[in-house]
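so the lab meeting is tmrw and i was supposed to have these ready like two days ago... anyway. pasting both below. for each one the top line is the aa sequence and the line under it is the structure tokens. i havent really looked at them closely yet so no promises
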Amino acid sequence: MSETRHYGPGSDSGGRHWSIVATLIVSAKLNDVEPLAWLTDVLERVVSGRTKYHELDELLPWTWKAAKDDEAARTG
């Protein structure tokens, strides 16, 4: 008998994963942040090592948005 891993909403772990993703998306939307742009940037920063463990608070949607707004204001 082969082992099958289920990561969809029908399994316990799949349900937890979906709830995490949903929470991230809703958090972004509540802070007027486009979820795909935010998640893409955050994942790129984490995977590349540009953001260190002690800097993770900079990746929260409200902090990320403020930094992007400041950057846009500076570049004009």
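ok protien two:
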Amino acid sequence: MIAYLKGLPLFFAPDHLVLDVHDVGYLLHMTTPDLEVARAAADRDEALAVHVYTHVREEQFTLFAFLDPLSRTLFTRLIAINGVGPKMALALLSTFHPAALRQVAFANDLAALKKVPGVGAKTAQRLVIELQPMLQDMALPTYPTAGPRARAIPAAPTDLHDELRSALLHLGFPEPRVAEALQALAREEAPPTDFDVALKSALSWLKKR
């Protein structure tokens, strides 16, 4: 079973890419945010490391890849829920970062869950019931809420700051440029507090410089 791959992203589709690992192309289904990170790596001709889950159904083997092992673990737990298949699990993780998904579950936010493609009222209710005990003990990052105090001390270390820094360094950006990008985000009038939005903004800032 494949658990980890590292190679060059070659071809992209809306829900997957082909990763060249020693001249062998692996078709990997990924979340939308992870695909955007992969595109940035491809633009820089950088290798991409991913954690892989191999889904076997009858004679069909499908590979799902994630930039961090936590997302892979959560994916495997999601598909264990009755009525949640790999496609829906990937849609959930494309819509919500793991920490955001926990927040939605514990807030009983059925409306937010129903915005995910394929999730209806009954599935949303089942997800809330199943996710609460599932996510209770998982070590997920938390993100600061937006507000004047957060902007007043942009250099203060936060989980979002640390995770962004780690993701950008992982993509091969040098430490000084990463620090500049994070400082630029913190100086914005309304700094993003969502990881996916913040990562897009940081990558956009870095590409322009």
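from a quick look at the 2nd one: Residues 69-136 form a domain with the DNA polymerase; domain 1 fold (CATH 1.10.150.20). Residues 105 and 128 are 5 Å apart (CA to CA). will dig more after coffe
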